[in-house]
Amino acid sequence: xxxxxxxxxxxxxxxxxxxxxxxxxxxxxxxxxxxxxxxxxxxxxxxxxxxxxxxxxxxxxxxxxxxxxxxxxxxxxxxxxxxxxxxxxxxxxxxxxxxxxxxxxxxxxxxxxxxxxxxxxxxxxxxxxxxxxxxxxxxxxxxxxxxxxxxxxxxxxxxxxxxxxxxxxxxxxxxxxxxxxxxxxxxxxxxxxxxxxxxxxxxxxxxxxxxxxxxxxxxxxxxxxxxxxxxxxxxxxxxxxxxxxxxxxxxxxxxxxxxxxxxxxxxxxxxxxxxxxxxxxxxxxxxxxxxxxxxxxxxxxxxxxxxxxxxxxxxxxxxxxxxxxxxxxxxxxxxxxxxxxxxxxxxxxxxxxxxxxxxxxxxxxxxxxxxxxxxxxxxxxxxxxxxxxxxxxxxxxxxxxxxxxxx
Length: 407
Known about the structure:
Layout lengths: L2 E10 L2 H14 L6 E6 L6 E10 L7 H7 L15 H4 L7 E2 L7 H10 L9 E2 L10 H12 L1 E2 L1 H10 L5 H13 L3 E3 L5 E3 L3 E6 L5 E6 L11 E3 L7 E3 L8 E3 L2 H7 L3 H4 L4 E3 L8 E5 L4 E3 L7 E6 L5 E7 L2 E4 L2 H11 L6 E4 L4 E5 L6 H8 L7 E3 L2 E5 L3 H11 L3 E3 L1
Helix pairs in contact: 8-11, 8-12
């Protein structure tokens, strides 16, 4: 057993990315006997101090092979010269991040959260994966769906492929975005139907109001229309006059009010029969990723792989097993482990931010998207939803058992 001490490094970049990279480097190079944990400067921004907890025979002395290995990490090339003690750093750092068992360490997620940038910093905008879709694919697919009216999932996939969206994952993501935007409904068994054409009217800051199309596209003219392309979905079409289309005033509010709390949401998922663990390969979600396990005695989200290679994600709650969309299952699993953080709301900007990996189930997220008719922006590790009032944010958060922090 050696002596534990700390070395500080000046690091640059987005703190969550740096933490991930350094932790991964330490594990890959098998340095965890010497580098036992990480800490990051509290309130870290683009330049910050990263602290390695080192266990060696004497403070300040690192075995030569370990020193050489650490020098290969791009984030560990600017060390401070003096070794430090816990008393010297504990008031300026986040909690310990254990690198020996990152997959199972709940503290890891807390440290990452403390290191996240300001979600309301517009300079942190990042394009989502949906930006990889062919330009205009979402709008063209919506016109095809509107003309067809309804059908099977295979027909929707074939239509998406004909428009250049051949990756099944991207097609699924595009379909989800169409649902969030109020254009599409998908039912059990993969059947889908386009919602009737309508105009949503929402309140903006002050007394201004905005109107945009939801539901099916049709050939009827719209008055004063203005189109805004958005990655991952069809155009956002603003109008001044709904014409003959129904007007839906503040559609997010009645949807949010009708949604159950999280205990009432679980029974809405598809319930599976018994799961034969002996005939399946099991992996359990540990809060960050799926890791191999020998049984399914604990509650949580599991990846079940059958002998023929078919993979199913299922949530165990009590003695019951449930299926559903992945984001919903992940959200519930994080809730089971006590890993869901608070939402953050900027009242002056009417923006709501939540962590990307804590995306809520689709119906709850749809209420957030219908506040503006826009998909959320990716800002670092956050999803930011525009034009969300504080009252609606608190209502949805209460349904989901979450807190809202106001800025």
